[in-house]
DNA sequence: TTGAAAGCGCTAACAG
DNA sequence: CTGTTAGCGCTTTCAA
């Protein structure tokens, strides 16, 4: 285990080297106006020369403003998070703020509501001027600095939120399957929460509207993972009266379904129609994803809201809703194609 | 501007509430063994109850280990960075470490070698146990904690590095164009640096090997941006003896070329062949990108190396080279198609 | 087994 | 315009 033996060059070193006091250095660093031009020059030179940079931890502890925005996100690997990330990045790039992303790399690792609060207090109030939390499960956060939440699993109580219209999105998806002529439409759900119940409601509503009786056997509980898609597909396709279409809670799950289904010799979309919720079909060549994309928009909007809050404009309990655009046909095929080519 | 008026619950609050001293709380927090079972229980309860979480900045300042790995990256929006990110995330997910990503959102914002050093000292040594720097321009860093660099623009002096084989990748790309029968092959370069000169060398070598005379007019200087692709394409296509193929330094630039070219009524790939370097063709539906992808592998490998370094295994001057796989045909068409559909 | 006290590097009064 | 000083919240000796 490496010891942090010697500390890096500190403000004291700079002070010594330039023959002034630490507070003067600090003033130069923070661009205070009350420093002699000459002194400033000299200090700047020394800083340059020594390769000094103020230490984030120390600075954060003392000053109220860090010009850092925090993003707390379960992972930075899968489509959903990355798309949001792109939006956030886009907005950050043209702002005065830098971005600090905190992730455990996996929502399995320890992402419960309790830990979310911990992450928030870890960053907010000191290290960052404000924090964006992606898909939080916690209902509320205590924090001194502003918070914006993106697409929460629960209804958030005391913070502005940007979210996808899960009801509408699910309606579009299921309705598409109905219009394709399907009567046996299965649903692999997400983890329980607001997102999920909205989609579930949509599923039921569309079935009802189409006069299709609700069959509890066709609803398989999932958790947004690839695995639950695999398992779900196996269970559903083993049913005596097997479904002809599956609506999956998100793309991860849909991927799982595709994998399982292929092994069973069931072909998509010939034998089985498949739709995932968080479709990102435009992303085929994904650096081209346009800023119109709902997930990117959520990210951009969250940054905008947060900066407003940080800079003092009182945020009313703003709730910003972004409609999903599901381009079902495309995504359905893209998925199938892709899985085959794996 | 919001003032950080009231501070969050601190270790002192916990101490007061549980009737012990702060040092005891700290001991519990850090799982020291010399705390009475009973005391520990009580403290844990209070912590839970108060929703306390140790402040990152403060903790970092005092302790040598934070179990945080830092990633310094120019942006988290474009294909290249995201692909590396996915690799890093993948490795982090199964490790004991959390990930802290620091970005300004744009390499335009202030990404010079000087600033890179600043970012490193901001994080490393206090906030993080080690840092991965993506595509650094700085030749060396001073830091107390370990550093690993990914795909640097220059030859890195004192740190382990993971990088793509730019020479080989460029050879494949240009050779592909030659095999297509092209004789007038233009090259829009990246910013000057190691990556670029390697590719340039490959470009020249392949031309020589094919007996094609080198024409300086066909080499247009770029900077990895979309814009330089647009400009470059216009200039190149205005040439009396215009090129029939363009090799772009990266995908961003290639996108720029596609855009400009379309406006000129030149069609890809019929009238003009186009290849970008950092092709990520498998990423059509990008959550499916496999861990075999060179860019992801770089990310994963960097984490591995860094953790080794942090945990004391002395790292020799390891240089890990990952060959590029360019699937030129696919990517070329995908690009063109996609740009048209914008 | 615990507490008191000394800082980590920095900023922000307050004096000069 | 500049220096002195008092902490921010935490960990870590050193005593008790």
Question: What do these coordinates show?
Answer:
The structure is a homodimer of 342-residue chains. The first copy, chain A, has 342 residues and is α/β, with parallel strands linked by helices. Chain A has three domains: 11-54, lambda repressor-like DNA-binding domains (434 Repressor (Amino-terminal Domain)), CATH 1.10.260.40; 68-164 and 294-323, Rossmann fold, CATH 3.40.50.2300; 166-291, 3-Layer(aba) Sandwich (Rossmann fold). Helices cover 45% and strands 12% of the residues of chain A. In chain A, helix 1 (11-18) crosses helix 2 (22-29) and helix 5 (79-93) packs across helix 12 (294-310). The longest helix of chain A has 17 residues, at 294-310. The two termini of chain A are 40 Å apart. Mean pLDDT of chain A is 80; it is low at 1-6, 280-288 and 323-342. At the A-B interface, helix 4, helix 5, strand 2, helix 7 and helix 11 of A face helix 4, helix 5, strand 2, helix 7 and helix 11 of B. The first copy, chain A, binds a DNA duplex (16 and 16 nucleotides) through residues 7, 10-12, 20-27, 29-30, 34-36, 39, 54-55, 57-64, 126.
What is the topological layout?
Two copies of one chain form a homodimer.
Chain A: H1 11-18, H2 22-29, H3 37-50, H4 56-62, E1 68-72, H5 79-93, E2 98-103, H6 107-110, H7 113-123, E3 130-134, E4 147-150, E5 161-164, H8 166-179, E6 185-188, H9 194-209, E7 219-220, H10 226-237, E8 245-248, H11 251-263, E9 273-276, H12 294-310, E10 319-322, H13 328-341
Parallel strand pairs in A: 1-2, 1-3, 3-4, 4-5, 5-10, 6-7, 6-8, 8-9
Helix pairs in contact in A: 1-2, 1-3, 5-12, 8-9, 10-11, 11-13
The structure holds a DNA duplex (16 and 16 nucleotides).
């Amino acid at each position: 285990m490496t010891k942090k033996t010697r500390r890096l060059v500190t403000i004291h070193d700079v002070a010594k080297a330039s023959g002034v006091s630490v507070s003067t250095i600090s003033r130069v660093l923070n661009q205070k106006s009350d420093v002699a031009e000459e002194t400033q020059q000299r200090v700047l030179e020394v800083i340059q020369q020594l390769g000094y940079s103020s230490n984030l931890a120390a600075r954060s502890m003392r000053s109220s403003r860090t010009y850092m925005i925090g993003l707390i996100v379960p992972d930075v690997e899968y489509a959903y998070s990355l798309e949001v990330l792109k939006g956030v990045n886009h907005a950050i790039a043209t702002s005065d703020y830098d971005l600090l992303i905190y992730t455990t790399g996996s929502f399995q690792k320890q992402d419960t509501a309790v830990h979310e609060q911990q992450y928030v207090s870890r960053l907010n109030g000191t290290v960052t001027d404000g924090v964006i939390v992606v898909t939080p499960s916690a209902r509320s956060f205590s924090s001194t600095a502003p918070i914006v939440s993106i697409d929460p699993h629960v209804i958030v109580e005391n913070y502005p939120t940007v979210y996808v219209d899960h009801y509408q999105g699910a309606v579009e998806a299921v309705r598409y399957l109905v219009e394709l002529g399907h009567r046996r439409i299965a649903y692999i759900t997400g983890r329980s929460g607001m997102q999920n119940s909205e989609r579930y409601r949509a599923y039921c509503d569309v079935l009802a509207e189409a006069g299709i009786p609700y069959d509890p056997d066709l609803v398989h509980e999932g958790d947004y993972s690839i695995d639950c898609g695999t398992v779900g597909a196996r269970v559903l396709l083993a049913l005596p009266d097997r479904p002809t279409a599956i609506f999956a809670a998100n793309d991860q799950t849909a991927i799982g379904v595709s994998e399982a289904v292929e092994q069973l010799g069931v072909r998509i979309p010939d034998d089985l129609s498949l739709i995932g919720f968080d479709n990102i079909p435009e992303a085929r060549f994904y650096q081209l994803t346009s800023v119109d994309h709902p997930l990117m928009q959520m990210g951009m909007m969250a940054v905008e809201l947060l900066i407003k809050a940080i800079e003092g404009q009182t945020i009313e309990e703003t709730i910003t809703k972004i409609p999903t655009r599901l381009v079902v046909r495309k995504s359905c095929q893209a998925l199938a194609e892709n899985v085959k080519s794996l």
